[in-house]
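User: Sequence in, structure out. Go.
Assistant: Echoing your sequence, followed by the structure tokens.
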Amino acid sequence: MEDNDKIILKRKINRDGIDVKPAVILSKSLDSVDPIKENTIETEDNTETGDSGSQGTDIYLSIENIINANLEIFGEQPFKGILNNPVLDLDEENTKATVKQWMSKMIKTYFTYDDIDAAEKNLKNNYIRLKAQYKNSVTQRQKLEEMLITEQQGKKTLNEKYDELAVFKYKLQKQLNSMVPLRDFVQISMHGNKIGEYLLQLTAELSESNNPAATVFIIRLCKCIREFQDIISKGAGSEKELMENVYHWSISFLHEVSGMYFTERKNIMNAIGRVLSSYFENYDFISPEDSLHVDPKIHDVRGLGGKTVKEGKSFLVLRKDTRQTVLLAQITTE
């Protein structure tokens, strides 16, 4: 074959002296034409212009696309090692080629037009697939953002309604306090009860403070005290059985007043403990909120364990003579 032939067969010998399979090299049609300066490529039969259907110009674009795709995925480093392999040395002039130059030479040497065309089609198909996935992800993100906005708007509406209800509740509480003075309510409800006299002393201060939590606490306490009186009136087979009945009553009572915090709560709880103890010869009822720190000897922690007592769930029961714990005080902590 002559030098001007468009297809040249080359044979390379590797380091072990073994022939490498001859490769078809697109010599003149790919090496001698600058894709930027020239817009035509000669073929054996005719000359094709570099329009959208031109194989010549398109083949350069395909090679460039293949190189860029590989470098974007793998980077240059893996190809530098191959570039320095003497078996794959394609540099006939012994000049230092860049990775892109070497890859371009490699594709021109070992790839046919069909190989390049197939690779280009795969790149296009992958691009279309990735573009569709990206479009789908954008759509999904937009939907999620819309859902988040809707949720935030709903939360804002609920918060506004909650604030309105809180104001309404406060107004109703003030009306209740003005319609039925708390002191009069306690005096009627607790008439003849040991704890009534002590509560009357506190309710004067509570009425003036208009503390909704304290007001509801006292009202529910009056209700629970009447239930306590019923337990005492019915009696039990033994003092121990009566003590256990009152202990279970304390669980019900503390459930009724759960979450109602105010300054005088601790003093009232201590007073209730003294009143309960006065009905027993051998047992003392101690407020579960009397101590600040958790003590495993007297406390039964419910829920997540903390270091300080937050709220009582039952009274503590001790023996009066030995101060031995009979029933633990159930508490929540923080």
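User: And one key feature?
Assistant: The chain is about 55% helix and 10% strand.
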